[in-house]
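[recover] target loaded
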């Protein structure tokens, strides 16, 4: 069996071997990983830790916040604000950016996160997660503003997620492929358990919330109907369907065995581009998926090329096995 490698050792070795991880970025990743460990402890305590159910508040998207949304947000801020590696943070749970207070040194990095992804699954004991994206401040000017955050996903220095499931795992990319760590609770350490993750280019599995079918645009209906037609349909194979309702869990399955994940625009709220948020859900997941050989589009363009107009911008998402993402994207292009 190969020698076990911890996250710390992995990051230091990467830094030595190819200099791909600057010291400040390494610190940032370690701090986020430590915060995820703390979130994982709260998640595991469940009703014993008074972390279940809703808080009496709404976030900027008008969604009722769960207690764990707020706890996870606070844990990430507290862990990250003092280390000197960040200029500011942004979160699904905060309307504006959180600038590192003056009493701490300011670094060059910007951290965005979805502190708790899959909130509707907290109370039913199904996998949830934390998603994060790291950018570098674009200007060297003093101070930091929301404008510094509005960079295309292709500019991300790192991205990752932590999944709180049967195992607690950390999945990470710094633009050199995708690696997975599993939390060893006895040691309190993240141990490398898989590297060189590759998503198969073809798949027989799709993930979409089928209850929205009547609201979809024609290219999405066409793609899903062809999958549903199975062996005797145009795709000439039977497809399986999965939908966890935690993007983290659906993407984790796709990284593990392939598949395509879709959260398209639909007619329920036609003025919104989609449900998922570009900067702290779609961008980090698209970076990870591309680094694993998959693809990610909004039906028309590569997600990582999109120029965000605002922090909480929404986007349609098609990601996973390359050939399927290209097919459903092609159907959108043909429909124009
Ligand atoms: P969040 O809990 O951070 O608001 O994200 C939930 C997202 C995503 O994780 C999931 O894929 C999707 O919402 C599920 O949406 P539906 O309930 O509409 O299926
Ligand atoms: Mn989310
Ligand atoms: Mn969330």
């Amino acid at each position: 069996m190969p020698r076990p490698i911890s996250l710390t050792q992995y990051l230091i070795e990467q830094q030595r071997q190819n200099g791909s991880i600057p010291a400040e970025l390494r610190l940032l990743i370690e701090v986020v990983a430590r915060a995820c460990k703390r979130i994982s402890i709260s998640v595991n305590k469940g009703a014993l830790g008074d972390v279940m159910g809703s808080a009496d508040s709404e976030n900027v998207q008008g969604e009722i916040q769960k207690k764990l949304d707020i706890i996870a947000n606070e844990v990430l801020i507290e862990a990250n604000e003092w280390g000197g590696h960040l200029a500011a943070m942004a979160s699904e749970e905060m309307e504006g950016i959180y600038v590192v207070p003056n009493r701490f040194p300011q670094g060059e990095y910007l951290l965005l996160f979805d502190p708790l992804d899959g909130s509707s699954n907290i109370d039913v004991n199904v996998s949830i997660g934390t998603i994060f994206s790291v950018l570098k401040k674009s200007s060297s000017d003093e101070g930091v503003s929301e404008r510094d955050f509005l960079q295309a996903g292709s500019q991300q220095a790192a991205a990752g997620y932590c999944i709180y499931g049967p195992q607690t795992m950390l999945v990470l990319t710094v633009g050199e492929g995708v690696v997975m760590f599993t939390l060893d609770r006895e040691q309190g350490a993240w141990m490398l358990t898989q590297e060189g993750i590759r998503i198969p280019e073809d798949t027989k599995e799709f993930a979409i919330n089928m209850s929205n079918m009547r609201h979809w645009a024609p290219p999405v209906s066409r793609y899903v109907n062809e999958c549903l037609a199975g062996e005797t349909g145009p795709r000439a194979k039977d497809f399986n369907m999965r939908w966890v309702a935690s993007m983290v869990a659906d993407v984790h399955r796709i990284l593990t065995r392939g598949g395509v994940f879709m959260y398209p625009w639909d007619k329920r709220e036609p003025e919104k581009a989609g449900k998922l948020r570009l900067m702290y859900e779609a961008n980090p997941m698209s970076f990870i998926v591309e680094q694993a050989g998959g693809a990610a589009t909004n039906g028309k363009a590569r997600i990582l090329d999109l120029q965000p107009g605002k922090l909480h911008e929404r986007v349609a998402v098609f990601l996973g096995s390359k050939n399927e993402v290209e097919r459903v994207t092609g159907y959108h292009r043909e429909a124009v």
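[recover] notes: The pocket of manganese (II) ion (ligand 3) is lined by residues 69, 92, 114, 116-117, 119 (CB under 6 Å).
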